[in-house]
Amino acid sequence: MNFLELIWLIPFVPLIGAGIMLLFGRGMPKQLVSLISPGAVGISFVLSLGAFVQLMGLEERRHEVVLGPWIEFLKADWGFLLDPLSGVMIMVVTGISFLIHIYSIGYMGHEHGPRHGGFYRFFGYLNLFVFFMLMLVLANNYVLLFVGWEGVGLCSYLLIGFYFHKKSAGDAGKKAFIVNRIGDAGFILGMFLLFKLTGSLNFGEVSAALTSGNFPVEAAGWGILSTTALLLFVGATGKSAQIPLYVWLPDAMEGPTPVSALIHAATMVTAGVYMVARSNALFALTPDASTVVAVVGAATAIFAASIGLVQNDIKRVLAYSTVSQLGYMFLAAGVGAYWVAIFHLFTHAFFKALLFLGSGSVIHAMSGEQDMRRMGGLKDKIPITFRVMFIGSLAIAGIPGLAGFFSKDEILWQTWSSPLGSHLLYVVGLATAAMTAFYMWRLMFMTFYGEGRMDEKTKHHIHESPAVMTVPLMILAAGSAVGGWIGVPKVFGENGFFQAFEHWLEPVFEPAAKVMATHGEHHPSHAVELGLMALSVCIAIGGILLARHIYLALKEDQRPTGGALYPVLLNKWYVDELYDILFINGLSKGGGTVLAAFDRSTIDGAVNGTAWTTRMVSKISMWYDTWIVDGLVNLSAFFVRAASYPMRFLHTGWVQSYALIFVAGVLAIFGFYWWGR
Amino acid sequence: MPTSFIPTAADLLRLSPDIVLTAGGALMMVIEPLTGAARKARMAAIAVLLIAAAMALSVMAYSDPGTSFSGMLVVDGFSTFFRILVYGCGLLTVLMSVDYFKRERGSESGEYYALIVFSLVGQSLMASANELVLLFIGLEISSIAGYIMAGYLRDDKRNNESALKYFLLGSFATAFMLYGVAWIYGLTGSTNLDTVRRAILGGAMEQSGQMLMIATALMFVGFAFKISAAPFHVWAPDVYQGAPAPVAAFLSAGAKAAAFAMLVRVAASAFFPLSAKWEMLLWATALATMIVGNFAALRQSNIKRMLAYSSVAHAGYILVAVTAHSEVGIAAVMFYLASYVLMTIGVFAVVTLVASKGERFVEIDDFSGLVQRQPMLAIALTIFLFSLIGIPLTGGFFAKFYVFKAALDSNLTWLTILGLLNSAAAAFYYLRVLVVMYMKPAAEGAGPVDPAGIGIKAAIVASAVGTLYLGVYPSAVLDFAGKAAQLVK
Question: Across the interface, do B281 and A672 touch by the CB < 8 Å criterion?
Fold first, then answer.
């Protein structure tokens, strides 16, 4: 069977699943729903695996399938591209999605929904999401990618608002949608410019045009290439929740927990990173734009981590952690280490999905409680969940041997050593690593250790989740443990297997590598690399021990409060409030009020003009009827009334004011042509 | 002077759609009083047949493009595109109006369909006139029918108010336009678009530049009123809110498309030599129209009024493409209007249904829980709203895409950026309807939506299919528009 020719089926199988769910799911028993929907993703996973294996056997690791033309002048077809990068992405997306679908069967099991159909609708949306996400990563051009890009946003919006009887859920959904639209505006502009520059929006052609030598590296200053790259990056900041458009992601946690795991941690939010990596030929040509990417990434990483330090809602801690880890990925992309960005995306998908699903299991056990201040001592009551989350937390903290260590350490090392990197960004990254270890282990100690702080009723109910939930957790835990071994630093010796990830992605990032080579190579010594590695391990362990000291050893009233910084962090640096003042109140409400002054509904308002107009017109109609019946008797009366028309018209105060606006407009145009020529 | 005043066969063929509609409309008026009340529904069928015949004739006429009646009328790709578009819009309006008057007044009405047919004659002339006086006549034929339709339910005070306002302000605006035409005639000695263009190129600009600009500005006021561009848009919200919902659809879709056809033809032929001077004016108008439309729509609670402001905002996006002053821009205008007509008719058709007898349910909150009460209707409305927002795989996405691409090609960078930001902000008020529809339970008093008649169902399905078609496979329409966009050969 030739899987490579069938790659277009990979997205379409979940689409069929979604169609079945949303059209016929209502009458289906739950068992059938739990068979069809995860089954569709399972088939996609098998197809992806087959295609991935066959791709490894190809001479040139790249295969394109074009189903038909679409928009010819943009060179955008219904085309799908499988190369090492999209190969990694489809494996991550279908694999993690499949596990999360299985988990959801258990998690959403008691979900009857506000309308007794919550279950099928949930799986329908989830399948639809997988379809769009796979379109996004398999598209062979920017336009088709954008279709997936908008589609995942839409599904995310539908799923955030899934509990639509909660007002906060509806608001969060709207916020996500609007913020993403702002990012999309940047993305569309970037696409336009890219098309203008290269004459195509097909990935292969764009990259060939950019590396053809017609475009010199824009080192001397800010130019059209940098603008294009920056606009695309604006799109990425929206989707991947970076400064300044990160505000929607923490609120998105209103959705069901499996959704947070799939969409808002493991897959959709990494779309921005994928897009930047896909455009590496462009970013490599503009050191300035790349620096912006790196700085925004680093700033987001430390900023979000600092907020994560003090949050009390277990899902919010993880949400800020996601924002922070995405920042790491952009930092790597910004310093030109694209493969490391994708490597961290890969390992992060495992441990973040694990942590979210684990927290879902905790919430499940706690009868819906999400506040960590009312948890504690769960270690022995839900042992499987505890053990897998223990592994996940070690992985994200960067303990050697586990997945997170290899990818995060590689990012830090590249930031230090790359010609585009800097030591300052390294320090920011290192500080973020310390904070990461601290907030994750704060979460662990508050949730699983110490005394239980829940009420008796909840305590009584605590139970381990069913196997349908814990098995996916264990698989993810295995991935979090060993997933990083295919990207071991070269300093430990070179070996085909241990550096498999880097070599696998080499053909995709060749355009960038060519340009990077011109920056000149310098090889810092192995001793430095090993030294920095030891430093980051110490930092990670230090963070964990500090969290242990504060949240386990000290009593509640002895804990340091953080002083003046605490309320600032707790309120997320007041950014939401700032945006509210600037954009919501300032722009839309203020602007709306001004315009509302021009716009009073004359129909509902008790305005004398309305009554007069109505009376007048109905009189005219009545008069018309009478005239037809009685002949010309009333003609004279009509002339009298008609003559009084202009007079009364002046007194309505309404139509008149409209006419006045007209005249003002006319005069403005006249004035413009008379004097302003 | 033409050598012969007897029209040739080619002349007649090029005018044939208008001839058929005029004769058919007059015939409808004659037989209407003779038809029994129970049979008046047949008048809708006659109107459908007439419009279909006009469509077929305009396609036939396009097989032999050229001017007729001494260059007064022109049949080219552009005019054929807009003829088909306004006829299609008329057809959908007829379909969605079936049963409407029965519901509102207890009896169908034949005159109403005749008025639609007359209005289409006017709009078709606006699209194909090559001469300013004929343009004006077309505009008046279309508008006068529109004034009557807006007040068609004359016992309803909202209808009355709407009609009167539309009439007064409309007359006011056309007066400006007619004055402008008179000035143009005085300055160039002709009202034929090609002759005017030659006169401007031949030195009229140097002799009396300021006067010429004022004359074009006067005409622009007339155009701006019809396309509801700021600040000449103030009538639109009151009129659309007050008029019967199908009429509001007709006015905001068909009448606007014809008005844009007129504006584009004049700007791209007669006044093309002045385009550098027009650009600033169009730029500012486009921006103001987008901003006023979008921000005023944010605050509306009545859905018809919100859609009125949204239609103002869409006029702003289309003006962005007009500002581009290029063939790509004209093609973008044509594509945008095609998708705009479909989504507007569709959304108003859904509103007509939900509003129920007496148009009682026209607040946005009245749409709460629509997905439970009428799932298919909710899905249709979702498609139209997505298209209005501009989400991919609907016509509205590519429409915006081409408009902003055209603007960028003409180096209107700032206008493009501001336009894109506007369209991002616009998502908000459409989204409100979606939220209410999907995420709020139905209100206590809201009964089931009346069962839909076959006509309005057909109109909704056709608009939805058209919207999706333009979103999935835009090339066919776009290719035609691209070829037709070359107005001056």
Answer: yes
Residue A644 confidence (pLDDT): 43
What residue type is A232 in one-letter code?
L
**Is A150 in Cβ contact with B425 (below 8 Å)?**
no
Mean pLDDT of B317-324: 94
User: Mean pLDDT, to the nearest integer, of B201-208?
Assistant: 76
d(CA B205, nearest CA chain A) in Å = 13
User: Would you state the structure tokens that stand for residue B65, as one six-digit string?
Assistant: 């493009």
CB contact under 8 A, B173 and A661: no
- B250 in contact with A, Cβ within 8 Å: no
Q: Smallest CA–CA separation between B52 and chain A, in Å?
A: 30
- The pLDDT tens digits for A580-620 are 666 655 555 555 544 444 444 333 333 344 445 445 555 55
- DSSP secondary structure string, A142-180? HHHHHHHHHHHHHHHHHHHTTSTTSHHHHHHHHHHHHHH
Chain A, 108 to 147: residues with Cβ < 8 Å from chain B are: 114-115, 146-147
Nearest-CB residue to B232 (from A595, A617, A662): A662
Cβ <8 Å between A614 and B157: yes
CB contact under 8 A, B217 and A170: no
Tokens read off for A356: 């979210």
- pLDDT tens for A102-119 read 998 888 876 554 444 577
pLDDT, tens digit, for every residue of A652-672? 446 666 777 777 777 888 777
Contacts of B409 in chain A (CB under 8 A): 196
Residue B489 has pLDDT above 80, yes or no: no
Q: Do A617 and B154 touch (CB under 8 A)?
A: yes
Q: What is the mean pLDDT of residues A50-73?
A: 85
The tens digit of pLDDT for each residue in A487-529 reads 888 777 777 777 888 888 888 888 888 777 776 666 667 888 8
CA distances from A85 to A61, A107, A280 (A): 10, 32, 12
**Which residues fall within 8 angstroms of residue A371, CB to CB, at 6 or more apart?**
A312, A313, A314
Question: Hey, which residues does B131 pair with through a beta bridge?
Answer: B192
Question: What mean pLDDT is predicted for residues B363-389?
Answer: 88
Contacts of B202 (CB under 8 A, 6+ apart): none
The SS3 of residue B392 is: coil
User: Tens digit of pLDDT for each residue in A230-245?
Assistant: 999 999 998 998 988 8
CB–CB of A146/A136 below 8 Å? no
Q: What sections of B98-156 are H helices per DSSP?
A: 100-105, 110-128, 132-150
